[in-house]
Specification:
Elements: H1 7-40, H2 48-59, E1 67-68, E2 71-72, H3 82-86, H4 92-104, H5 123-138
Antiparallel strand pairs: 1-2
């Protein structure tokens, strides 16, 4: 092997390496596209109610206390799987009723326990938030959170 690299050798290494990593990038892009369109959320289209529920989530900054699929603050419980934990994932009306009861009972006033403020949401906002949480619960999170408690 030569001890000095020629310009031709350097050029060939550069072009060969660039081509190799471009092919890897294209392959990963295709894989991501296939995953997103077939297994992620494509089977659960966003409805107007789900979109409005996401706006409620953002307007009241729920992520400042709660986590959604591991993203957010760890002050309050994970809500990415809350509808499964409550057992109302397949019953939107029961999900609405349960969430409404929970929201209206806040703050509970239990001594030594973290208190969630009462945001005085309308029934439509609570219904939309429930639909958003059902939608979030049904997304393929690849087994996140690692336990049912979040």
């Amino acid at each position: 092997m030569r001890e000095v690299m020629t310009k031709t050798m350097a050029r060939n290494i550069f072009y060969g390496g660039s081509l190799f990593f471009i092919l890897i990038f294209v392959g990963l892009t295709i894989h991501s596209h296939i995953y997103i369109t077939t297994t992620s959320t494509a089977s659960m289209p966003l409805t107007e109610s789900v979109a409005r529920g996401k706006h409620v989530w953002e307007r009241y900054s729920c992520i400042n206390c709660h986590t959604l699929h591991g993203e957010g603050a760890y002050y309050a419980p994970e809500v990415g799987n809350v509808m499964t934990r409550w057992g109302v994932i397949d019953e939107p009306e029961d999900a609405f009723t349960t969430l409404k009861g929970w929201m209206e009972a806040q703050p509970t006033g239990v001594e030594g326990r973290r208190q969630m403020p009462n945001f005085n949401l309308s029934e439509e906002q609570i219904r939309d938030l429930a639909n958003f949480l059902i939608w979030a619960d049904k997304t393929d999170t690849q087994n996140w959170p690692p336990n049912d408690a979040g």
